């Protein structure tokens, strides 16, 4: 049975989880789930897994930056660029947004038993090859807030453009009990 991004009964009044407390210790809070920018839902439950749609680094409903990720030696003068360090921070924001999507369908992040897979997309200047380092932002955040359950398989993919000219996008698969 699949469930869309509608919260499970009781999700809205669920107590703050240990995962959310660890996020708070890092100065982070779960945002409201971002409204889809096209025809999809933010997360779907299938069996004991949650599959999130790609999450952009929205902060208060806006992207903190747009453009291609570049180490500074590539790119065109008329294109906005984002440093790998900033993109890594944005990947962590994407991971937090993905956790919010997970919570929207299972109610409590403490139910996560493992992050199975993370796929990260980096809008890259053609000569930029540091995609794994950028997506480390998401992977490291998941490890900090979920411990061993945050260790996962992963892909980091360079692409020519992402929705809304976002520098990064992250999706994940979470197993829960």
Describe what this molecule looks like in 3D.
The chain is α/β, with parallel strands linked by helices and about 180 residues long. The protein contains three helices and eight strands; from the N terminus they run βαββββαβαββ. The strands form two sheets. The protein has a six-stranded mixed sheet, with helices on one face. Strand 6 (about 110-125), helix 3 (about 130-145) and strand 7 form a beta-alpha-beta unit. Helix 2 (about 85-105) packs across helix 3. It is globular and about 50 Å long.
Which key features would you list for this structure?
177 residues; alpha/beta; 6-stranded mixed beta sheet; two-stranded parallel sheet; 3 helices; 27% helix; globular; disordered N terminus
- Extract low-pLDDT stretches: 1-14
Strand order of the largest sheet: 1-2-3-8-6-7
Radius of gyration: 16 Å
Q: Average pLDDT, to the nearest integer?
A: 90
Report the oligomer: single chain
Instruction: Work out the number of β strands.
Output: 8
Work out the strand percent.
15-25%
Number of helices: 3
User: In which range does the helix fraction lie?
Assistant: 25-40%
The coarse silhouette is: globular
* Termini separation: 15 Å
SSE topology string: EHEEEEHEHEE
Structural class: alpha/beta
> Biggest sheet, open or closed, and with what strands and sense?
6 strands, mixed
């Amino acid at each position: 049975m699949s469930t869309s991004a509608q919260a499970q009964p009781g999700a809205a009044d669920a107590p703050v989880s240990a995962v959310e407390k660890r996020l708070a210790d890092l100065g982070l809070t779960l945002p409201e789930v971002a409204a889809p920018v096209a025809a999809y839902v933010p997360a779907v439950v299938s069996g004991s897994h949650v599959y999130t749609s790609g999450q952009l680094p929205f902060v208060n409903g806006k992207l903190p930056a747009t453009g291609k990720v570049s180490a500074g030696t590539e790119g065109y003068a008329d294109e906005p660029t984002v440093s790998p360090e900033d993109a890594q921070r944005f990947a962590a924001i994407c991971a937090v947004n993905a956790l919010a999507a997970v919570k929207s369908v299972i109610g409590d992040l403490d139910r996560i038993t493992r992050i199975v897979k993370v796929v990260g997309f980096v809008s890259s200047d053609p000569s930029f090859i540091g995609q794994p380092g950028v997506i480390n932002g998401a992977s490291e955040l998941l490890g900090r807030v979920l411990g061993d359950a945050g260790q996962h398989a992963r892909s980091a993919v360079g692409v020519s453009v992402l929705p809304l000219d976002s520098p990064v996008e992250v999706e994940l698969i979470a197993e829960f009990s």
